[in-house]
Amino acid sequence: MIATAAPDFELLDQDGTLRRLADYRGHWLVIYFYPNDRSINCTREACHFRDEQKILVQFGNAAVVGINKASVAAHKKFSDRNYLNFPILSDPGHVVTEAYHAWRSNSAPWYDLAFGTRRNTYIINPQGLIVKEYLGVAARNHVETVIRDLQELQAAEPTTV
């Protein structure tokens, strides 16, 4: 998906606010997909994005958005419990998740689900192109990699729209 237009989305966040890809036009955007609001690794990843939010904002006002299939109400609990400072979007029909190739449609031997969200992350540039993708990532140290790559991408690409 590198160098392709990011698939459009219109999803509700944990507060019931409609969020669109177009809202982020002109800014760098990190979208990460995660399997479950209640898992240890998903909580670790979300809290790490929360803790590094100030650094991400320094880089071209980069925004972070988390997406999974849980309900708005479930995301609200997850966000409030972990003091998240970025939107968590509800994709109950996993339409957006599928558009980003983050939906697992067959069973993996190490994971006891036939269907579900893969832990994928995408960096989208201010023009709306996917410029970096991370497929099936581990939650540990992932955010540091995203920050480093975001710095390199911004240094190599002008941010004019």
Jot down its keywords:
7-stranded mixed beta sheet; Glutaredoxin; single chain; alpha+beta; 30% helix; 21% strand; two-stranded antiparallel ribbon; 161 residues
Molecular structure report:
This protein is of the alpha+beta class and 161 residues long. It has a single domain (10-154), classed as Glutaredoxin. The protein contains 5 helices and 9 strands. A 7-stranded mixed beta sheet has the order 2-1-5-4-3-8-9.
What name goes with the CATH superfamily?
Glutaredoxin
Spatial strand sequence of the major β-sheet: 2-1-5-4-3-8-9
Q: Enumerate the spans where pLDDT stays under 50 for 5 or more consecutive residues.
A: none
Overall, the morphology is globular
Largest sheet: 7 strands, mixed
Q: How many E-type strands? A: 9
CATH level 3 topology: Glutaredoxin
Quickly name the level 1 CATH class. Alpha Beta
> What is the count of DSSP helices, taking H or I runs of 4+ residues?
5
* Domain tally: 1
Topology:
Layout: E1 10-13, E2 18-20, E3 29-33, H1 40-51, H2 53-58, E4 63-68, H3 72-82, E5 88-90, H4 95-99, E6 103-104, E7 116-117, E8 121-124, E9 130-134, H5 142-156
Parallel strand pairs: 3-4, 4-5
Antiparallel strand pairs: 1-2, 1-5, 3-8, 6-7, 8-9
In short:
30% of the residues lie in helices and 21% in strands.
